[in-house]
């Protein structure tokens, strides 16, 4: 089933992975029609599920994002039944993505139902005292950006940005651009 739950307090990583999933599922020329985002709430919940059953327009698939799914207690049994019918009849081209700041409460009917169908990914901030994980995150960012940096630079970057993933990627991109600029200047002279 093409259903996903992204949860955690690292907003930047969640945002990056939403964009990655959108680019994977939805054709770039049809994003206006086939990508929808709703804030979680009783009224938006029904609208999102109705749109989820709508076939995609043009090429590619459809992605419906239901963000900030923190207050699941507001979902009554009729909406849970509507969700179950929707998930059972969900076309392979259509994808549902739910996001939450915190882990979903496993005691709720909603969570039990959605967990049967969804792929769950956690995106939590690394504790600032865990220097090994912070340096590993810097190395991952450098690898992702094809940026080679020394171990000393990795430790300095990890110490300066801490667990702020957005700042880490911004600084890494700045380093990469500086290197490109220096390379071009060397080639010119």
UniProtKB/TrEMBL annotation:
Keywords: DNA replication, DNA-directed DNA polymerase, Nucleotidyltransferase, Transferase
Gene assigned in the entry: holA
InterPro entries in alphabetical order: DNA_pol3_delta_N, DNA_polIII_delta, P-loop_NTPase
Domain of life: Bacteria
Keyword Transferase belongs to the record: yes
Annotated DNA polymerase III delta N-terminal domain residues: 4-123
One Gene Ontology molecular-function label: DNA-directed DNA polymerase activity
E.C. number(s) listed in UniProt: 2.7.7.7
Keyword field contains Nucleotidyltransferase: yes
Family matches, as Pfam families: DNA_pol3_delta
Name of the protein this chain belongs to: DNA polymerase III subunit delta
